[in-house]
Amino acid sequence: MQRQKPDTLIGCCGLRGMECEAGEMELGIELAPTYWGRYAYAIEVGRALLDFGFRELGLEVISGSTVSANARSNRLAEWFGAEVVAIRPGSSWMSARGWNEVHWRIAKEMWERRMAR
């Protein structure tokens, strides 16, 4: 939601547990293109999801993936303190553009250290 217009939908987000190990979930943030790179929405949403996942759900690891060409998502994961665990060829539409799929993860301990600074 946008601060000046709290009833405006700006995207979706969540933690997904499908195909994850016990104690792990995948973080997803999908902002509408109008909001890409603006107002630090992704930081605010990501921080809230990481806090919720680690504190309320008792997760040990939160992971995610993005396209290598998505510099903003890669910087966001880095800002959170996540580490890249794999870079793999993506689907055919990614490969056609010379892009890969970047997988990252952050452990609860790393998040807590990051937030203690």
Number of strands: 5
Describe the largest sheet: 5 strands, mixed
Structural classification:
alpha+beta
Coarse morphology: globular
Major sheet: arrangement of strands: 1-2-3-5-4
What quaternary form is this?
A: single chain
Average pLDDT across residues?
Answer: 89
Task: Enumerate the spans where pLDDT stays under 50 for 5 or more consecutive residues.
Answer: none
Distance between the termini: 28 Å
Order of helices and strands: EEHEHEHEH
Number of helical segments with 4 or more residues: 4
* Percentage of β-strand residues: 25-35%
Cα gyration radius (Å): 15 Å
Share of residues in helices: 25-40%
Which features characterize this protein?
117 residues, alpha+beta, five-stranded mixed β-sheet, 33% helix, globular
Task: Provide the fold topology.
Layout lengths: L10 E6 L7 E8 L9 H16 L4 E7 L3 H10 L2 E7 L2 H4 L4 E8 H9 L1
Parallel strand pairs: 2-3
Antiparallel strand pairs: 1-2, 3-5, 4-5
Can you characterise this structure?
The structure is a single chain. This protein has 117 residues and is of the alpha+beta class. The chain has helices spanning 41-56, 71-80, 92-95, 108-116, and strands at residues 11-16, 24-31, 61-67, 83-89, 100-107. It has a five-stranded mixed β-sheet. The radius of gyration is 15 Å and the shape is globular. It starts with 10 loop residues before the first strand and ends with a helix.
